[in-house]
Design goal:
The complex is a heterodimer of chains A (184) and B (174). With 184 residues, chain A is an alpha+beta fold. Chain A folds into two domains: 65 residues; 100 residues, Ribbon (Umud Fragment, subunit A), CATH 2.10.109. Chain A is built from four helices and seven strands. A seven-stranded antiparallel β-sheet of chain A has the order 1-2-7-3-4-5-6. Chain A is elongated, with a radius of gyration of 22 Å. Chain B is an alpha+beta fold. Chain B has two domains: 30 residues; 136 residues, Immunoglobulin-like (Sandwich), CATH 2.60.40. Chain B is built from two helices and ten strands. Chain B starts with a helix and ends in a 6-residue tail after the last strand. The mean pLDDT of chain B is 90. The chains are: A alpha+beta (184), B alpha+beta (174). Chains A and B meet through helix 1, strand 4 and strand 7 of A and helix 1, strand 3, strand 4, strand 7 and strand 8 of B. Strand 7 of chain A pairs antiparallel with strand 8 of chain B, so a sheet runs across the interface. Chain A: Its main location: endoplasmic reticulum.
């Protein structure tokens, strides 16, 4: 059955190759989808002033508030982050940002803040996770404050990360469908 | 045109759209809830100050407090848990804002009792200053809570300023 369907797709593709005008139309369609997604992402980046407006929770350190696979919407347009806020921050020389809660805030007259964070589910604060010798986070280290959450959606991302092959399969399939699907 | 793939695609896509729509509805369904339903904070005040010492150049105070708060009103069907925490805030010469969480507790929606009534609670995190400026400072205690939704927005609540209590730390180490 699968083979049958696969053959059908191949036939569709061959037909498409024959009809250059149709091919062009479908390619444009594909490009539009890709660029719409890109535009939405960049638009979100602009509005939230965050370099990654949506993140996936990868660890259980914030359980039971957030589980692995939840996605968080970040906002970095807020000037102040306060104690108790859930923030995503980046540590120098570490690729993966961390989602934790602010435990301490110290701010001087010039508005320079120093922060200490901790995961709800961790026993100790995050000093051990920071760069060697680093005692405090600063405002620039914060990628954004978590403002909303959506469950399970991030599971897809986790699966894609764990099995990179899936990425190509998924993208390939989507591309194929957009190319071969016909309007009305 | 009517292959199984197209149909599958349509069903999955429509299903996801509906889920997303429902999530959005869930998120907005309780806007304004906290305006009418505030937790009742009966008491949050210092019980005893155990010590105020210098630890390797930074001041550290250990204390215990009494707390009595009913968090039930803050819950609605889209709140999975409340992250309840006690913040000690004070002002020093070098830092204008100092906020330190000294205690926290997670109250889950499935917990049968959502009232926090404990006496002589020892701090979970010591009140540690960044420097050595804790002596003789006024410290305010405030209860705050963060609503963690099943899906939707995170938002904070805090004890009204006029019901907050404060205490003064001794001017000498003890």
């Amino acid at each position: 059955m699968i083979k049958d369907m696969f053959d059908k797709q191949v036939i569709e593709l061959k037909k498409l190759w024959g009809n250059k005008r149709q091919l062009l139309f479908q390619l444009l369609n594909l490009a539009m989808i890709v660029f719409s997604a890109l535009m939405i992402w960049k638009g979100l980046m602009f509005m939230t002033k965050s370099e990654s407006p949506v993140v996936v929770v990868l660890s259980g350190s914030m359980e039971p508030a957030f589980q692995r696979g939840d996605i968080l919407f970040l906002n970095n347009a807020v000037e102040e982050v306060g104690v108790g806020d859930v923030v995503v921050f980046k540590i120098k020389d570490r690729d993966i940002p961390i989602v934790h809660r602010i435990l301490k805030v110290h701010e001087d007259e010039n508005g320079k803040v120093e922060l200490l964070t901790k995961g709800d589910n961790n026993r100790v604060d995050d000093r051990g996770l920071y760069a060697p010798g680093q005692l405090w986070l600063e405002r620039e280290d914060i990628l954004g404050k978590a403002t909303g959450t959506l469950r399970y959606v991030g599971m897809v991302t986790i699966a894609l990360n764990d099995y990179p092959v899936l990425k190509y399969v998924l993208v390939g399939m989507m591309g194929l469908f957009v190319l071969t699907s016909k309007e009305g | 045109m009517h292959t199984i793939w197209v149909r599958l695609n349509a069903v999955v896509f429509f299903g996801l759209t509906v889920l997303l729509g429902l999530s959005c509805l869930a998120a907005v369904s309780k806007i304004g809830h906290s305006y009418y339903h505030q937790p009742v904070i009966h008491k949050l005040e210092l019980k005893t100050l155990k010590s105020l010492k210098s630890h390797g150049g930074v001041d550290r105070a250990l204390l215990s407090f009494d707390i009595h708060a009913d968090m039930e009103p803050a819950f609605h069907w889209n709140v999975k848990q409340l992250f309840v925490y006690v913040v000690a805030s004070y002002e020093t010469d070098s830092k204008k804002v100092n906020q330190v969480v000294i205690w926290d507790k997670i109250v889950e929606a499935i917990d049968p009792v959502k009232e926090i009534k404990q006496e002589n609670v020892f701090v979970k995190y010591a009140l540690v200053d960044q420097g050595d400026e804790l002596r003789g400072k006024d410290v305010q205690l405030q209860l705050m809570w963060d609503h963690m939704p099943i899906t939707g927005f995170l938002y904070m609540g805090e004890q009204p300023k006029d019901t907050m209590t404060q205490f003064t730390l001794p001017s000498e180490y003890q």
